[in-house]
Amino acid sequence: MLRMSLDMVVLRLHDERLELLLTPRAQSPFAHSWQLPSLCIDETRDRDLESALSRLLTEWGLGHCYSEQVCTLGNLARDPRGWSTALVYLCLVGPDINPVHGSWQPLNALPGLSLAFDHGQLIAKGLERLRIKSRYSTLPLQLLGSVFTLSEVQRAFEIILQTPMNTAAFRKRIHRANILVDTGHKRTGKQRPAILYRLENPCCVMFDQVMHGAEA
């Protein structure tokens, strides 16, 4: 029997680190290994991929979040039970999202975890998409809360791209994207008050040129 699943690489940015949503697998094969949120496509319930993805997001309590299809992988080797195909999606959620299943695992803890099937490869594909697209779009803003400061925006890019940014040039680029709205409020604390912004719309906007770390 051909198995077709929808697998999600769900990421959040929490305490200045990227975290991945995983759950322990209860049954064989790969019992007690960690796996990505997934479901088998059900032709009696899922009219199309969008409805299947919506069902999966609902089952995990993730609600409406940014998602995009990354790739499709299929072969005889990825599942010992036989040929299988995985439709891989990248999903980005805010820092305070608490799913009804699984737990958040820091990315730097992955080398010490036993992963089911080829989920290590699926995670690598999702991370590659996030990092590449973050160089030419506003995608990292999907990982922030409902309101945020420009410093928090810059820090999100720096964590994902693993490189510092030139603050003046970065802020100029972000403002040119014309997607931020000044909320009229400021965040106060140990640092001087900073303007709080929100996204004007949830769309991912493309920059006019690729960023190159500190040269951005």
From TrEMBL:
UniProt-listed Gene3D superfamilies: Nucleoside Triphosphate Pyrophosphohydrolase, Winged helix-like DNA-binding domain superfamily/Winged helix DNA-binding domain
InterPro entries: NUDIX_hydrolase-like_dom_sf (IPR015797), WH-like_DNA-bd_sf (IPR036388), WH_DNA-bd_sf (IPR036390), WHD_NrtR (IPR054105)
Start and end residues of each NrtR DNA-binding winged helix domain: 141-199
Highest taxon above the source species: Bacteria
SUPFAM superfamilies per UniProt: Nudix, Winged helix' DNA-binding domain
Residues making up the signal peptide according to the UniProt record: none
Name this polypeptide is given: DNA mismatch repair protein MutT
Organism: Aeromonas cavernicola
